[in-house]
Amino acid sequence: MAARAVWTGVIKIAEIVCPVKMYTAATTSERIALHMVNRETGSRLKRVYVDDNTNKPVEAADQVKGYETSDGAYVILEPEEIAAAIPESDKSLTVDAFIACNKIEPTYFDKPYYLLPASDATEDSFVLIREALRNQKAVAIAHTVLFRRLRPVLIRAHRNGLIATTLNFDYEVRSSKDAFSDIKKGKIEPEMLKLAQHILKTKAGKFEPEKFDDRYEAALAELVKAKIDGRKIVPLRRPEPTKSNDLLEALRLSAGAQDNDAPAPKKRRTRKTSDEAAKPAAPRRKAS
User: Fold this and answer.
1) C-alpha–C-alpha distance, residues 133 and 136, integer Å
2) Are strands 92-100 and 7-13 parallel, antiparallel or unpaired?
3) Residue 137, by phi and psi: left (phi above 0), alpha (psi -120 to 50) or beta?
4) What domains can be seen in the chain, in order of their start residue?
5) Which of 40-44, 235-239, 275-279 has the lowest mean pLDDT?
6) Residue 56: what pLDDT?
7) How would you class 143 by CB atoms within 10 Å of its CB: exposed for 0-12, middle for 13-18, buried for 19 or more?
8) C-alpha to C-alpha distances, 199 to 8, 243, 244, 254, nearest whole angstrom
């Protein structure tokens, strides 16, 4: 890996200890960066903290964190007090349990990281863990201190390495039951369901993330270029939502469009008989 490791430690499974290095698997560094600037001068703005009562700037040395106990009242937490409350790290991903891959709830996924052997000397134990997870179609649930917080981590085999995904805590994940409680069950007409299933089958494909189109980044890049060139950007029209009484017709049109996109079947070439092959070709008619 060309990037610098964000964490170095060990995977610990019972008596097996495997030194590893952790690297970020996803980054936003390639996104277009926008800054706050002064419209009049074009100069970049700086963030300044001001006292809510006096409206005066506060020096960095006097800026501390606080927890609001009541409206406008705070308990002050000094930096050394916060540091003392942070759990100490033994730099180990301690595995608590193994679960089947199909038992994972995706809403708990947070951020992915790549795990690599810390050195060539530790590669055997790394490969052992990777292949054991792969053969059992299982993932490991571990915990460790990452970025000053004790975090649950899911570890799974991926190609020649391992991927560690930090997990959200249960209190951080909102209830799906509550989120969907107001949605009516409803009934779908058999024809609608059949058309929808047909569309799904004709659009079946493979997971190809390289084909994902970041339209926001592309539109933002075009907007910046247009502003530099002095051109005007015409905003795109947003599609209107399909009304309930138009849903069946929309499905029929969609299914028809999918069928038209399918490649036409190739015509089978028939072998000519010896008599047909002997006949001279008909002359082409000249354009008048």
Assistant:
1) 5
2) parallel
3) left
4) 7-27+86-172 (2.40.290.10)
5) 275-279
6) 96
7) middle
8) 48, 19, 18, 7
